[in-house]
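Each lists sequence, tokenised fold; shown next:
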Amino acid sequence: MPGTFPPRVVNQLGPEVRAALDGFGSRLRIVDASRESDAPWDYAAAGFDRADILLTGPSAGWKRAPAEPPAGWAADAPGAPRWVQIVSAGVDGFPPWLLRDRIVTCGRGDSAVPIAEYVLAALLLRTKRLDALRPGSPDAWRRDAAIITGAAPLGSLDGQVLGLAGFGAIGQAVAARAHGFGLRVLAWRRGEWPAGGHGPVEPVDSLAELARRSDHLVLALPLTEETAGCVNADVLLHARPGLHLVNVARGGLVDHAALLAALDRGQVGFATLDVTSPEPLPAGHPFYSHPAVRLTPHLSWSGPVVRENSARRIAENIERFFAGQPLRDVVDAARGY
């Protein structure tokens, strides 16, 4: 890749990544910058106009970026970044021009384990009802015990069907853990199956078929023009009655009005939503108070080693950059992930 030497790195990812960058010593020139600026496209102010490598991530500032690239962003412009590393797996929160005419890599898989654990926790809470059964008195304790030992015993994941919409790093991490609970795992993906096939996961031909056959449907798809609103009224109309929908991907995958209608009529029995569109939802939105919705504030990615994973990935890609080797997890701008 052309550029200056030692390459100049603009780091918008904070001290954890800075510590990994410092390990390169004089091989890098590092500029720390914030990605929370009101105008992130004014990259001259942050030194972007003299960067070889830009390390960035989602922010409210990027969402306010203009539709057209700023002057000087063209790949052949003097000082424009030659490589952009995005810390997130999804790239839908960035303007399309950020992805064009240069190498862009992402954090695919860095938070797959905590997201998979979130999914299994959501399935267990739905099945075991542990958050609903919290007696506050001896009489309530006796009442709940009678319910469980009587007409409404706790459920089990063993033998239930888990549908995965998307089978990338997150879907694969969910599947690996789901099999340990005896779940039968189906998956639908838009692209080719990974090398080595799909193992014990059963592929299905469409999202509608996945919804029809699943007890729990987990959304782990990228948000693109093709997937936006894919969980729509038609898919939900044909869903298995009582379906548990879990969205750990992007809120824009789901038609919220159609989901609300499906919840109200009982076609969808419950929805665990870690993501919505917009985020947060406006005050008074029905999802805040709906008895069949568990809403969490986009936290499924959080885990004790996610930032370490990101820093390690960036360091590895920088070593590949120096060696002239292909970088890991390059984004396909045409596909949007």
Summary: Residues 306-323 form the longest helix (18 residues). Residues 8-110+304-323 form a domain with the Rossmann fold fold (CATH 3.40.50). The mean pLDDT is 91.
